[in-house]
Write a sequence for this structure.
């Protein structure tokens, strides 16, 4: 009652929910990988509208949240240097490093700038040839092509005072790590639509097959998510484990071929540490050797970064779906979006911030919140 | 930044050898790189992420998505002033964060 009126098409939402309720015969748990989906689920109360036997586990798909602390500390160190213009997406401003954030570096006199597109950073470099302009490239496969293109352009145009601090992450190795974990409770995955808009869906059948998990590619809007859940529940009930594309309006199986070829040229896969989770083999992209001159880690040689994570923060367990945000002792008390202890409290795609913003302090399930009419 | 927003291509030009478009996101117009969607034409809709068009989208779903984003304030978050937002978050009392 509380939420369903807010849906684009309440009657359709109702039908999808009825279909799910009519299909499910036992408890199932599934993970939405993408933080945009987590935000949408909590914002629209989808988890509370579903039958009680379906649990949504919030996955590690918030790139802001999983960017390793060491990389944040390196960013802060570079951004504080004189002569450097440090460009970033706005979401990174308040991600806590070991002892400060980019917002703080700026108030202490660092030249930190927010850009909408990485191409804006390249333009800044072209206009200020005596400054070192650095762009902080974070994000999943949806974002990586933008950073790849700007590296490609910088090299093509010979812009020498421009470099990139690259910390990209890839979804399939993360899914693999989650299903391989002995604690894994995830029985199906909702895969992120826009990641697949770029990458296509061809990486997923092997995963679904090997680990016998349904993988349903879905969008971010409430109805898309409900449709994804509906399809995942069908597969689970039937004992199937296929890759389904529930977001065909934006996802083709081959993805975006031009983007894929530029990604292959500019990046190589690398092991990557995910904040709170640890290193996942092959789960990241770094600049390939041909682009080494544009690698800020190489250009600035940051050394002696000693990372300190607050002991109380359980964001690693939150990111793996092992605890819900409000089960963390600091949630809403020592840790709020105003004073975040962990990155999952910073980004609105982070599970802790989503729970906090929409007042999920304890998420009691009452008849009222679970009701749909 | 994690969001991909549909918008309508209102103009196309080459800049530094790269196809660029002006794209209208329900009133906010931005420069968007078409390197990954070079065949798109003026009047069509594309899904745009951090200034890059990544896929085509039909008009009906594009408009539905834009309406939803507008209603939940997602467009402000995507195109608004990140410094102002960060400063507000750093100062706002926790009680006021509930909506
Ligand atoms: S509530 Fe804060 S301290 Fe607790 S897990 Fe989330 S980010 Fe970490």
């Amino acid at each position: 009652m509380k939420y369903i009126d807010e849906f684009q098409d309440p009657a359709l939402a109702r039908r999808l929910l009825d279909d799910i309720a009519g299909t499910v015969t036992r408890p199932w748990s599934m993970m939405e990988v993408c933080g945009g989906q987590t935000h949408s689920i909590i914002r629209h109360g989808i988890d509370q509208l579903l039958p009680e036997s379906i649990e949504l586990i919030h996955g590690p798909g918030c790139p802001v949240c999983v960017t390793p602390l060491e990389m944040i500390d390196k960013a802060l160190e570079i951004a504080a240097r004189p002569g450097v213009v440090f460009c970033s997406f706005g979401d990174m401003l308040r991600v806590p490093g070991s002892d400060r954030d980019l917002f703080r570096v700026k108030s202490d006199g660092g030249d930190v700038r927010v850009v909408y597109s990485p191409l804006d950073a390249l333009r800044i470099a072209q206009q200020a040839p005596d400054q070192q302009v650095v762009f902080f490239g974070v994000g999943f496969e949806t974002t990586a092509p933008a950073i790849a293109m700007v590296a490609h352009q910088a090299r093509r145009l010979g812009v020498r005072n421009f470099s990139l601090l690259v910390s990209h992450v890839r979804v399939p190795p993360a899914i693999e790590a989650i299903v391989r974990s002995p604690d894994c409770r995830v029985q199906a995955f909702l895969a992120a639509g826009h990641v697949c808009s770029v990458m296509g869906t061809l990486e997923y059948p092997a995963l679904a097959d090997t680990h016998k998990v349904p993988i349903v590619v879905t969008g971010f809007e409430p109805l898309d998510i409900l449709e994804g859940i509906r399809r995942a529940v069908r597969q689970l009930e039937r004992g199937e484990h296929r890759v389904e594309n529930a977001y065909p309006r934006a996802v083709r199986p081959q993805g975006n071929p031009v983007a894929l070829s530029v990604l292959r040229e500019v990046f190589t896969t690398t092991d990557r540490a995910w904040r709170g989770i640890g290193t996942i083999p092959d789960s990241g992209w770094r600049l390939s050797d041909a682009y080494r001159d544009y690698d800020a880690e190489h250009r600035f040689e940051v050394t002696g970064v000693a990372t300190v994570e607050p002991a109380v923060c359980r964001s690693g367990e939150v990111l793996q779906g092992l605890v819900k945000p409000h089960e963390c002792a600091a949630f809403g008390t020592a840790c709020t979006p105003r004073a975040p202890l962990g990155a999952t409290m910073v980004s609105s795609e982070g599970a802790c911030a989503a729970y906090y913003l929409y007042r999920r302090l304890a998420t009691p399930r009452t008849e009222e919140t679970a009701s749909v009419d | 930044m994690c969001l991909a927003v549909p918008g309508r291509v209102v103009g196309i030009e080459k800049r530094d050898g790269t196809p660029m478009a002006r794209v209208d996101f329900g009133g906010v117009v931005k420069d968007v790189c078409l390197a990954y969607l070079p065949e798109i034409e003026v009047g069509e809709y594309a899904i745009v992420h951090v200034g890059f068009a990544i896929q085509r989208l039909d008009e009906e779903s594009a408009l539905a998505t834009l309406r939803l984003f507008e209603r939940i304030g997602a467009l402000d978050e995507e195109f608004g002033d990140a410094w102002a937002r960060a400063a507000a978050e750093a100062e706002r009392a926790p009680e006021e964060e509930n909506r």
